[in-house]
Structures are given as C-alpha cells and as structure tokens.
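Exam prep: given the inputs below (a chain plus histidyl-adenosine monophosphate), describe the expected output before reading on.
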Amino acid sequence: MAILTTRPRGTNDFLPEQTPRWQYLERTLLSTAALYGFGEIRTPTFEHTELFQRGVGDTTDVVSKEMYTFTDKGGRSVTLRPEGTAGICRAAIENGLLGDALPLKVSYVFNCFRYEKAQRGRYRQFHQFGVECYGAAGPQADAEILSLAWEGLQTLGLRELQLSVNSIGCPACRAEYHRALRAYFEDRREELCETCRERLEKNPMRILDCKSPVCGQIAAGAPRVLDYLCGDCRAHFERVQSLLRAAKIPFTVDAGIVRGLDYYTRTVFEISVPGFPALCGGGRYGGLCRQLGGPDVEGIGFAMGLERLLMVMEQQNCEFPQPPQCDLYIASMGEAAAQEAFRLTTLLRREGYAVECDLMGRSVKAQMKYANKLGALYSMVLGEAELEQGAARLKQMATGEEKPVPLGEAFFTAFEQEMHNGWFAAAAEAAEGLTR
Ligand code: HAM
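Solution:
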C-alpha cells in the first residue's frame, strides 16, 4: 500500500545530509536571540482549541480554515498549534512569568501546522523560529524586535532583504477605520467571497488579507489604516521609524501590511526577498495577554519560516558550515583484527574523534569503498600481519599518502599528533573552514 510509504501532503522528511543545515539555522538564530537577552521556551505541540479561537481570532483564515483540530479520547477539542504566539502567551500567564521581572524575552524553534494548499514554500507542517517580548509598551521594544529579526537574517548571509513596516493602530483608532472599511466594501458586497461577506460584519480588516484574487483586487483600493491612526499611535510609529534609521536598518513603510492574525495592534512588519513569500512576519499585540485571562501586559514578536529561509539561502548560495566528517575509518580482516578495530574505534571516539569500523563483515576492498563514500580523512587496515607486528599504515585518503603508525597505546599519541601537527593537519584545518 503506497500510503504506508508516502508522507502526508505538505510535510517533509529531513534527511541526515540536510539536518546539519537545519541545526546551523537553529543554532545561529537562537544564539543571535541570546545576544539580545532572549531565552528559549518550549511549549506543547497541541493546545486547547479555544486558545487559538480566542487568541488568533476565529475570523482569520488560520483559525477558520487551516487548523488541525480533533477531539481527543477525553472528548476535549485540541488543535495542533498553527503558530507560536498564543501558546507562548498562555504559558507565560500560566507559569506566572508576567509578574515583576519584565520585560520577559523568550525565543523558540518548533513545528507548526496549517491545512493550507501545499505548494513551494507553503507546507502543512512547517517550522518557525520566533521571539516574543512582554511588558514593554514603548517603541524601543519594537525597534529591538525589528533589529533582532534583521540582524538574525543578516548573520545567515541573506541578501536582497526587504523590511516593510506598518502600523494598524490601537482599538480606538481601529473603530473608525473599521467604519471606513465597511462603507467601502459594502458597495461591492456582492463581488466578495462568502467568507469575506461574513467578515464584513464581524471583522472587515480580515478582507484585506483574503487569498481570493477577486477580494484581493477589491481590497487594493480600500482605505488605508495609516490615514486613521490616532495621535498616540502615530507618535509611536514615528519613533519606531526614527530608531530604525538611527540603527541603520533599512525599511519601507507599506500600508498594505495588515497581517493575517487578529491579535496585532500598532506596529506590524514583514521581511521578504523579491519573488518569494514572506520569510518573517510579526508585530505588537496589545490586548492578547488580557484577552487570555492574564495581566494587562503588551507583547511584541515575530516568527520566521525555517523551510523558506533554507530555500532562499540555498538559492542565494549562502555559506553553510562543513557537515561533520569521519576522521578515521579502521578496516579489518579477520575476527581478532575486527576486535582490535572496535577497541581502537571506541577509545578514539571517547577522545572526541569521529571514527568508524566495519559493521557488515565486508571484504577490505568493500570497506575501503565505504570509507571513501563516508569521505573519511584517514584510513587504516588491520589484519593478522599488523596485529603481529604491532604496527599499521595510516593513509591520508585525499592524497593516498601513507605513514607507519604503532598500534597499542602508542597509537593514540601518534594519531593525535598527526591530527594536530602532521601532514593531516592541513586537511583538518581545511575541513574546519566554510564551504558552499
Ligand atoms: P505568520 O506570518 O503567520 O506569523 O508566520 C510567520 C512565518 O512563518 C511566515 O512569514 C512564513 O515564513 C512562515 N509560514 C507561515 N505559514 C507557513 C506555511 N504554511 N509553510 C511554510 N512557512 C510558513 C505568525 O505565525 C506569528 N505568530 C508571528 C508573530 C510572533 N507575531 C508576533 N509574534
């Protein structure tokens, strides 16, 4: 049955040859966040469905169309997280992290699930790196979050990045904006998709990020939220922009960015490269913590899609570290030699070297072929003669050059010396460098 050997649509397998790149991405982004004072948080893959309905908003596409929701054996409705912000806010409230020691700054890397039309860069299981900062209501926090998103992507070597920022105001200025939107869309109600006709009553701003081309075309001529900002929201947004200019972070103001999730207030932003869906999206959320039953604390954050990041990095030929390499392959002939090979392999691994020996009972020729395939830096063959003489020949695979080495305890010193000082050192040094 093909279903047993076919992964669900919109999911990916990450094979051992690819995972070093993922680990590099995760490591780099988490450590950049740590420089800004963000500590990693891990929350459950599934949460109570109500959390997303209340937090993300039930008129959003994410909640109304894309959630993986099911009833568990206890009869409760649970949902695989479609994003991280709501669950992290829940965890911060539940664990009492929103008390005195603010701002609270957390980072995360995890999988998210959205039942979307699977296509390039859009998956049903995908991975986000993100951060959330709680307790800082002023524009300084917006600038710090934007700076972290920008610098994180710079550190990965991405080029042609475009940061677009906007402000969607607070509930006070939003009320007036909603009136203007309703008036505009009301005239074209019949052309809107069914979901958007419903949104017109409940939440007209959601029409602006509808994926239907007709709604998109109508939305293009709609009033712009920037023209409806109250004095405080306008001042906040001006200050964010001047902080960005001071830190020489290039950006453009794009009034079209409204984001597809309901919790945002004031600053919203996206980072993208031309011709590709957004790499990063985020913004401020003023009311989420209170809405979920927590204290009246503002939050701001962003998330980036790791699949998209990796895809663009590969497209742009960004540098990745060299994947871990096999330092030494010890081939053997006969049982006694195989035992010695296993002993040496184990001891060398304890010293931190990547060493392999035969697990398959293959001929020496086949073992050497395998050592080549592994890209081993060195190899050594052990047979009866080597055991008897207490010596073997260490071969540098790249050049074919060989050198006698003692076996037994003396081997470790000889090997260590060769690795650090000998003619192998150059190869080891090269391996530490970066390759494309
Ligand atoms: P979002 O814009 O929905 O925001 O998602 C953030 C990023 O996740 C996107 O820019 C994209 O790179 C990636 N992404 C989203 N959906 C998919 C998908 N189906 N396949 C592949 N990648 C995808 C949020 O999730 C907010 N929680 C961000 C945030 C954090 N706002 C404040 N704090």
